[in-house]
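Crash report, auto-generated. Payload:
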Amino acid sequence: MPEEPKPRRSPAGGERQRDADRSRQRILDAALVEFGEHGYSGARISAIARRAGVNQQLISYYFNGKEGLYRALTDRWRTLSGDLNRPDAPLDEVVAAFVHVGQTQRHWGRLLIWQALSGDREEGDEQYHRSMVDDLRRRQNAGEIAPDLDPGYLQLALFGAAIAPTLLARFAEDFTGLPVDSPEFVERYREQLKRLVAHLAKAL
Amino acid sequence: MPEEPKPRRSPAGGERQRDADRSRQRILDAALVEFGEHGYSGARISAIARRAGVNQQLISYYFNGKEGLYRALTDRWRTLSGDLNRPDAPLDEVVAAFVHVGQTQRHWGRLLIWQALSGDREEGDEQYHRSMVDDLRRRQNAGEIAPDLDPGYLQLALFGAAIAPTLLARFAEDFTGLPVDSPEFVERYREQLKRLVAHLAKAL
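Recovered output after restart:
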């Protein structure tokens, strides 16, 4: 197995580090698919190892088992969604970016739904979710959202709208006549949600 | 077991019919809870029978097993949601009514999520979903929705927003500071979605 932690002398330090980074990355990619398909309790470390092309011991070594691996995925999502939620980007583009990730990397959306169905909470979730509302409030103060809307409830409604194609794929297909994984659907839904957000900016 | 199909002569016809209707109703109520908690494949007929206080044979007799029972629940949901989606009611009230049912009868929302996750389709789903979009298009023509919005995509976004408290209960709690099953949350979210719909009516 080439992915075992290497003995200290070979290969050289920099290359060893890059190998390790690539292995971690491959494990996380595989874990995202497995957790997304089967949820936390249904996911199997052996399947993740097989998909990543590493042995299970390496997953233990890097992530300290299933729970640690799941926590690493959660951290990765927060980093990714933090990157999408750029404070300097207009709100309609932020919402459109979430739709795009949800559809082009569907396992994130499924992971979120499993997490929501199970009712489990990860450490730091509450703080993270509140910071999303704080951001909407800041945008409202800057005139991006009409003053009659409450940022907390709006955050919930926009979140539901953004995740709808992942959650309600068949419904979406019936509603729009397009498969949700087609580029045309993704483009149109992004465009429509941008318009919806534009409507929310105007005072009544 | 008092719920067995009765012999033909006693009690009198009308009362016998009412008993049968009540039994069917209790079975459907119990089935909604069981399917909502565990999904189709996880639901057990024995648990439904126990909850309804009938024996399993009666469920076979009335509904022809698990599949028939599930189909009867689907029919019931279509009737219920058809009643909510009154053509003469303003759109904001229709959306608010769905939020209310989703929160006060949470098992419907969970049932929908299970169905969506499994990717299963019930007979008539497509036609039913298209009729929902037709209704939005009619409302748009009547001036309830701005002309730049596409009824199919808007239907998806509103559906996602309406089901968000059921799907994303913990998120909702973090976003708003209120538990989603509190009357205060339900009332505020209804009010906020009504405002959101009002924004969508105004041309940009």
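Post-recovery validation: Residues 54 and 143 of chain B are 51 Å apart (CA to CA).
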